[in-house]
Amino acid sequence: MKQPWIMLLLIGGVLSVRAQPVMHQPDPYIQQLLTRVSADSIEASIRRLAAFGTRHTLSPTDNDTFGIGAARRWIKQTFERYAAAGGGRMEVFLDRFWYGPDGRRVDRRVEIVNVIARLPGTDPQDDRIFIVSGHYDSRVRDVMDSLSYAPGASDDASGTAAVMEMARVLADARFPATILFVAMAAEEQGLIGARHLAALADSLGWNVAGMFTLDIIGNTEGDNGVRDNRTVRVFSEGVPSAETPRQARLRQAIGGENDSPSRQLARYLHEIGTRYVPELRVKLIFRRDRFLRGGDHIPFNERGFAAVRLTEPHEAYTRQHQDVRVADGIAYGDVPDRIDFDYVARVTRLMTAALANLAMAPPPPAVAYIDARRLSVDTRLLWSPPRAGRDRLAGYYVLVRETTAPLWEQKWFVPATDTSYTFVGWSKDDYFFGIQSVDAQGHESRVLFPVPLFR
């Protein structure tokens, strides 16, 4: 199959290290989706969430204007309004459960409620689920103070508003795979809502192909005085949290510390950002999260799912978990007037583009191997077709990078009729390789890192 958007350079049957990379043209449909993202809509959502006074997990649930109960009812009603405007395909439901006391950050029995909008996939054979979340609870300095003013504008009304905006923009979309837009609860009390949802996904056998949490994406000026409204950080684990002893021994023998499914998801965001939102630099941070902090991606990592965190470029600790006040001439507190709404919209466009690409792409190959059955100066990759989506499979990309390179450096196209590829003269000792599925429009799956085939 000849693809006009692919450029290859073969020299005497041997791939040149200076080969031209694949040249991508953005999908016009996805570009059109991105024009729907509105900074004004995001601002309205952030200000509305802040107006509930506090969204602390232990705050009142029976008040119409104050506390977490009012906030989650408003989120649900807004999701329902977006679903109706999108033709009714998107479904809205509550993931509710009782929790506590736990002797730590929850001192009584309380109902925890994740608010979820589900955009079902159109391919019954494609069971992949992509989750994007922001947590809607908030706090002040005292984590048990459930009544003081805690607007939580950046942490994390910004992420929640971005998720709601994505649901609004994509409500009428028809993708083969399913997307869950989640307003997560009780993050500040110990990632409680995310732990419950990750455990539920694990117990029900959900094929969570990627989880993204947007947590603190509203401030563009850090406590270091640096202002940067053109960078978003993406945190990802290297060694999988759920790695088995056998997988650990294999990794220790042949490498792969930077090739976990979560790290591949982070690289995917980087490539999509370059293609669709070039005004936003996606800065990959090769650690699971920041020092002394955690996010809702972690419970998904611990359950073996690929999950990453997006957050603003510089920390503003004077705004995180602070009582709203002025002390020694310094303004403390996480209030809406300090949010850069245009920046939140840029991050929202990045995530919208990534979700659309992932949900339209065929799934990755079912399995992938690097042939290690004999010593050779060549490298042979083998793989099996994806378990679903073969009707929209145009072929595969094989990717290469130096072992010290953070990003994939080169990729080549292999037609769908082939399930192996040999790099003549390229030693498997000197490079890392990956394989991903691609359709005729250039929508790529997450990269699959091949494991050695010894016999």
Structure description:
With 455 residues, the chain is α/β, with parallel strands linked by helices. It has two domains: 10-25 and 364-453, Immunoglobulin-like, CATH 2.60.40.10; 36-360, Zn peptidases (Aminopeptidase). 26% of the residues lie in helices and 23% in strands. The chain is built from nine helices and 19 strands. The protein has helices at residues 28-35, 39-50, 68-85, 153-170, 192-203, 245-254, 261-276, 298-302, 341-360, and strands at 10-11, 14-15, 91-99, 110-119, 128-135, 178-184, 207-214, 231-235, 281-285, 307-311, 325-327, 330-332, 368-371, 379-383, 395-402, 410-415, 420-423, 431-438, 451-453. The strands form five sheets. Strands 3-4-6-5-7-10-8-9 form an eight-stranded mixed beta sheet, with helices on both faces. Strand 15 and strand 16 form a beta hairpin. Helix 1 (28-35) runs antiparallel to helix 9 and helix 3 packs parallel to helix 4 (153-170). The model is unreliable at 1-20 (pLDDT under 50).
